[in-house]
Every structure is written in C-alpha cells, then in structure tokens.
Design a protein that fits this description.
Strand content of chain B: 25-35%
Structural class of chain A: alpha+beta
Number of domains of chain B: 3
Distance between the termini of chain A: 7 Å
CATH superfamily of chain A: RNA polymerase II/Efflux pump adaptor protein, barrel-sandwich hybrid domain
Strand content of chain A: 35-45%
CATH class of the largest domain in chain B: Alpha Beta
Number of domains of chain A: 1
Oligomer: heterodimer
Number of strands of chain B: 19
Strand order of the largest sheet of chain A: 1-2-3-9-8-5
Structural class of chain B: alpha+beta
CATH class of chain A: Mainly Beta
Number of helices of chain B: 8
CATH superfamily of the largest domain in chain B: Probable tRNA modification gtpase trme, domain 1
Shape of chain B: globular
Distance between the termini of chain B: 36 Å
Radius of gyration of chain B: 21 Å
Order of helices and strands of chain A: EEEHEEEEEHEH
Helix content of chain A: 10-25%
C-alpha cells in the first residue's frame, strides 16, 4: 500500500498536500482499494466554502458510495474533472486522481491532521 | 465462519474475502469488479457458489411435496430438465427462489445460501406433514462452480465426457468433468452461455476441477469472478436477488414472477392469495429503471419519489458496465410502473432523475 511520507492524512482516508496556502486533496490508496472501481465523483458546488469535516461531495464506486469530507476549512477553488476517466482515482490516487483544491482559511488546522506514521497505524500498514 | 473447498485457491488468487451466507466468500479478485464483469460478457469466468444449498427429494410423494411448496409446475419436468421456481408462505410472501432439477429417480432443489437453514426447516416441515417422502440436505457435500461466458462451452467441453453443445438452456447431463462425477447444468445467473457444475468431494477434488478448468480455458482468458461482478451481471439481465428484490414481504405477482406462477396446476402454498392478487391486480410492481443522471448510482434502500411523494423503494442498484450508466430495480406504485414513466431516486438530500424501462436492461 502506497502512503507517501510528504502528505497529511485524515481518519476518513483523505490526503492533503499544501502549497502556497492551497491544499490539494484526494483519497488515499487504501481508500481507493476499499472502494474498488470508481465510476463517478460528484462535487455539487465547485466553489463551496467549507468547514473542516463538512461533506463536500461523494465518490460512487461499483461496490459502494463514500462521502468526501473537507480535511480543512476554506474555499474550493478547483475541482479535478476526473469523470471522463474516473479510474485515475484508482490508478493514481496521489497524482492525476486528485479531487479538489481548497484555499485554506485556517492553516493551523493542519496540525490536527494525521502524520504518515499515524495514518499507517490507522490502516495497519 | 464456513469456507468452501476452494478457499485456499481464492486466497492464492488474491481474492478479497467477505462474509456471505455464513461463508467466507470472494467478492472480487485483484483486477476488480468491472474487469471481471467484462471477462464474463466476452470470454469465460468461474464463480464459486458452493455456499448454495442442495436438497434431495425422493420417495412416492416427492413430486407432490414439490408441487405443494413451489409455485411453478414441476409435473412438466422430465428427467434432465431444470426449472426456475419459488417457495411461498401461505400469506404469499416468498420463502426463497430456487431451481428444481428432475434427476430421474429423485429431485434436487437448489436454494440460496443465505436462506438455506430456513428453507431446510420449511421443506422438512412440509415433508413431515405429507409423508411418504424422503428429504436429505446435501448442501455440505456439493461443491458448485458456475462457468459463464460465451467461451464457457468450449472450455467445459474440453474436460467433460459428455457432449454439451446440444444441452439446452435449463437442461443438464450427468457425466464427469476432469474425471470427477458432475452434474453439468446449462444454467446460470449472468444471462450468458454458461454451465453450473455440481460435484462432491473435498479440497483435493476442488483443486483437480479448478486446475483442469483453468488449463482448458487458458486460451480464452479464463478468470475467477467474485460476488461483486455476479451482482452487476445478474442486475443487467433483470434477475431477482432474494433479500433485495424479493423476500417474505413481496408476492410473486408484484415481483414480476407471474411467468413461473402456475395456478392451473392445482392448490399449492399461497395459491389462493396469489389468485386474489392476480384477480385484483398488484398495487405495486417491481420495475427496472435507468438513471438519467450520471451522478448517482442507485443503491438498495434509496426512496423512489415523484413530485416530493415517496412512490417506492430501490431494491437493487449498481452501475451497468454494459450501458455505462446507473441501473436499478425497485417497487413502485402500479400506476407509475409503465416503461417510460419518469421517476426520481432520492439520495444525498436531493433527487436524481430516472426512467422506468422494460427488463432486461440488455
């Protein structure tokens, strides 16, 4: 299982990489493996202002559907249109399968997220 | 948790195992459900469905027992023929759906794994009331592999001692597969050409058959297929899944199983209730629907609504790999059940448009 060391993680199996105050967010390799084949990512409001923990969308996979939770507060500034080839969420969850960018309103929230070691412990890796 | 005789083989193939019907069963293998689905539609795949139950019915009243407890007309069966049927409670709800095999000297009922214990109690109870009939639960003895897909005939034929090309749908022959005595049945749950192989024996026998099948099917790209793809395959064909689309609260008429309900055969469990439903017309009907939004895959339990009013409930739903859109089945009010009817599926605090269509989906 791929768990990059340079990311922060959540208990809901999302990852975030912050560059210049903008968080790039996706689901982890563990999450895509549990979901199985992803067929649609639905993010109804592509410019939503979200609070940490809010549901901002959902991932439809063959086996099940999963909610997407904001790992940080802020405004969604970009949505990755993966629905032309949603399998990239499975094949490249940390790269071309990223889901949204959120401009952080409270960067201090990052301290509350899981480190790579904490996330490894969560998924038993 | 029980395991089938193929358990070690599934693990070696990298299966993701889940608890199902009291068994640890493969839900998918590493390449995933969509891949497995396409393998069965275009080539050949093998499902281990050994969790299903097999009851052997014999004795002077064997046929009388089956006629009493099932809704189809088993008197039409001749040796070598099988029949899709269902058992009903006196109130009209469905105990289980099943296959009835006429084996010449006896009958074999094949029931859902998740229903096996209650089905066995139900069969035993009616056998005791009727008398002159012997019922034996051979579920633990029988292994069952479903070999399905357009290349299934070529594959199984290579290792079977019986000619299979002329075995008609819902017919079976008894012979050997890889030297193992096997009931070779031209049946399945995928809508494809396919065979179901019933044979007895332990893990060594299971390994013998599996090895021979995979050698015979290697040119055709044979693969193991899990329960996940079994669901997408059967849903595209509009086949009912017990526990989802039919259960003890649904009667055969509203479930669209009127075609296996043979009132003319004489009284059977629930025949009076079913006759009443047929006479009055069902108040709700099981329909197929196609999503007219790509955003939602319908799932079991989602409400079906129209203009803010709940008119039914989704019983099965998934993405259709063949159609590239979400499809589902569910019960709706009878006046909204006609193909072409606009309905909406409620989920995520909103609704998504869908259209009632004729089954099967493809």
């Amino acid at each position: 299982m791929n768990i990059p060391a340079d990311l922060k993680y959540t208990n809901e199996h999302e990852w975030i990489r912050v560059e210049d105050g903008v968080g790039i967010i996706g689901v982890t390799d563990h999450a895509q493996g549990e979901l199985g084949d992803v067929v649609y990512v639905d993010i109804p409001d592509a410019s939503a202002t979200v609070s940490k923990g809010d549901t901002f969308g959902s991932i439809e996979a063959v086996k099940t559907v999963a909610d997407l939770y904001a790992p940080v507060s802020g405004q969604i500034i970009e949505v990755n249109d993966v629905n032309g080839s949603p399998e990239v969420v499975n094949s490249d969850p940390y790269g071309s399968g990223w889901l949204v960018k959120i401009r952080l309103s409270d960067p201090a929230e990052l301290d509350g997220l899981l480190t790579v070691d904490q996330y490894k412990a969560l998924v038993g890796a | 948790m029980k395991t089938t005789q193929f358990h070690a083989i599934h693990l070696a193939a990298g299966a993701k195992m889940v608890s199902f019907a009291g068994f640890e069963m493969p839900i998918q293998y590493p390449k995933g459900i969509l891949h497995e689905h396409n393998v069965v539609r275009t080539g050949v795949g093998v499902f281990d469905v050994s969790h299903m139950g097999e009851f052997i019915i014999s004795g002077p009243n064997a046929l009388a027992l089956i006629q009493r407890i099932t809704i189809n007309d088993a008197s039409k069966l001749t040796p070598g023929k099988a029949q899709y049927s269902a058992m009903c409670y006196p109130e009209g709800g469905i105990v289980d759906d099943l296959l009835v095999y006429h084996r010449g000297d006896d009958y074999m009922l094949v029931v859902n794994g998740a229903c096996k214990d209650k089905d066995w109690a139900w069969v035993q109870q009616h056998a005791a009331e009727l008398g002159d009939v012997t019922v034996v639960d051979e579920s633990d003895d029988y292994n069952l592999l479903a070999v399905q897909g357009p290349k299934s005939l070529d594959t199984v034929q290579k290792i079977a001692d019986q000619p299979l090309a002329d075995v008609a749908f819902y017919s079976f022959v008894t012979g050997t597969v890889a030297g193992v005595p096997t009931i070779i049945s031209r049946t399945g749950y995928t809508g494809e050409l396919g065979f179901e192989l019933y044979f007895k024996g332990g893990a060594d026998v299971a390994a013998t058959i599996a090895e021979a099948l995979f050698a015979a099917g290697s040119d055709a790209g044979i693969e193991w297929i899990g329960l996940g793809a079994r669901d997408t395959l059967r849903l595209e064909k509009g086949y009912c899944l017990y526990g989802n689309d039919i259960d003890d609260t649904t009667n055969p008429i509203e479930a669209g199983l009127g075609w296996i309900t043979k009132l003319a055969k004489g009284p059977f469990n629930a025949s009076d209730v079913i006759a009443g439903v047929k006479e009055a017309g069902a108040t709700r009907k099981l329909v197929g629907f196609v999503m007219r939004s790509e955003k939602l895959i319908p799932r079991n339990g989602y409400p079906i609504v129209l203009n803010g009013e709940i008119i039914g409930k989704v019983t099965s739903g998934n993405t259709s790999p063949g159609l590239g859109t979400g499809i589902g089945m569910g019960y709706v009010r009878a006046d909204l059940a006609a193909p072409g009817s606009h309905i909406e599926i409620a989920a995520r605090n909103t609704t998504f448009p869908a259209e009632v269509v004729k089954l099967p989906f493809l």
